[in-house]
Amino acid sequence: MVDIVEADDPKEVEKAAMIIRGYGHSTTETLEGTPWEEFLDSLLETLILITHNSWEVKVTGGDHHRP
User: Fold this and answer.
1) Secondary structure class of 64 (helix, strand, coil)
2) What are the DSSP calls for 1-61, one per residue?
3) DSSP structural state of residue 67
4) Whether this model's pTM surpasses 0.70
5) What letter does residue 62 receive in the DSSP assignment?
6) How many other β-carbons are positioned within 10 Å of the β-carbon of residue 20?
7) Pseudo-torsion of CA 24, 26, 32, 35, nearest 10°?
8) pLDDT tens per residue, the chain (67 residues)?
């Protein structure tokens, strides 16, 4: 079973974890998540940066030192 808790304050997540854990034998692990749309936006920005930097390396000839 996986319980997903969404909160703006990490302390609220800690409280929820203690309540959930208090109901029986369980292991608690907290992980921070990113909303899907926010993740996709970040991925797109990263891909644009990688593509732009790759293009600059090709145009300028890479990291070669010029005399």
Assistant:
1) coil
2) -------SSHHHHHHHHHHHHTTSS----------HHHHHHHHHHHHHHHHHHHHHHHHHT
3) -
4) no
5) T
6) 14
7) -70
8) 778 888 888 899 889 888 888 887 778 788 888 889 999 999 999 988 888 777 665 656 655 555 4
